[in-house]
């Protein structure tokens, strides 16, 4: 079969056969599976509420999921619109119940003047005391009790008080499994996803290029209680779980994720996670970390994290709604690092972290190493990075509980053999308040970090 290009506009009212931009499909049949060489192109400026279908390509004919036309990137939402006033009824004590039957929830997002505000998830109805507080699952006798309705604290009908309300179910969005390979995803935007936005779980030869990923995570981790007997939440933007190889992530903006911007964890066998290149991306306001190799008993091989700009680890919507230290299994310690290494097999791994900018992890080190056997550093190369903490009292590194501040860089180099050409310097971003992390001409970090706009 000859390679096929299909044009899709999820918002069109005059659906065609999809063979040209002038006659796009409104949706694909449920049975549709891309074949080698298939291009699925979504109209720029459109909004889709269903994931794109997955298939497999070949080395010379990958499946391409991308965009056509002018304007902003096609937007894929993992959420459900609950903005209609008719969906809400009073439930007493400044509480409103959504009458629409909903799956378990991870987040609730309110819009005012086109700005997003995440509501604060509460663990019982009695805790609904502040506008935008919401509750579905309650903790009763230290057990999760799922409710099939959503409650929100509001003086009046919340749908009349806000421009829009998006309910985020605790679903994964796109999962690349063993039979998914040679797929290129580019020029798309993903938002409001309750668990993981893009997860590789056995897939290989997957490329994620020039995509934006935001407002991810918040699902309750129902299999585990934290070390202090508290239930915790989770969700990553881009995750490799247990297995995946030949993975490329480049040119992306990843922000406002409850947990990790990028994670490679839980390797199911030595080298099951291998040949991964995460390069030239912006990661900012992500709650847990931006490069994460944890939960591992096996080595990961040839994993590179290079030329990325990482800002404000531990920030984002999770911190805004839960405060600091944010809810996690690490309490009473705070979380929020740019790099987290916690792999029992790290000595046999090959991890390269170079040419990055790591800027600010308030109250925390920029890099935390939680597990490191005696010869563990032999599998890791960290060098030619730029580090900066706006508060000099915040450490740069934490290795097995030993903290290193600005004045300790030489000692850190001596003890670890890492970072011999790295610098400590304010990056001089173009406009940090507006999340413009390009570098000014006089930046001491020019040549480091990501070169994207």
Helical residue percent band = under 10%
Contiguous low-pLDDT stretches (5 residues minimum) are: none
Average pLDDT, rounded to a whole number, is 94
Radius of gyration: 22 Å
Give the N-to-C terminal Cα separation. 38 Å
The order of strands across the largest sheet is 1-2-4-18-21-26-29-32-35-38
Q: What's the number of domains?
A: 3
Task: Specify the biggest β-sheet.
Answer: 10 strands, parallel
Apparent shape: globular
User: In terms of structural class, how would the helical and strand content be classed?
Assistant: mainly beta
How large a portion of the residues is in β-strands, by DSSP E? 35-45%
Number of strands: 44
Q: Work out the helix count.
A: 3
Protein name: Right handed beta helix domain-containing protein
Organism: Mucisphaera calidilacus
Pfam families: Beta_helix
Domain Right handed beta helix: 179-313
Key phrases:
453 residues; mainly beta; 10-stranded parallel β-sheet; 44 strands; Pectin_lyase_fold/virulence; Right handed beta helix domain-containing protein; Pectin_lyas_fold; Beta_helix
Describe the 3D structure.
The chain has 453 residues and is mainly beta. The protein folds into three domains: 1-76, no CATH class; 80-169, no CATH class; 174-439. The chain is built from three helices and 44 strands. The strands form nine sheets. The protein has a ten-stranded parallel beta sheet with strand order 1-2-4-18-21-26-29-32-35-38, with no helix packed on it. A ten-stranded parallel beta sheet has the order 3-5-19-22-27-30-33-36-39-42, with no helix packed on it. The radius of gyration is 22 Å and the shape is globular.
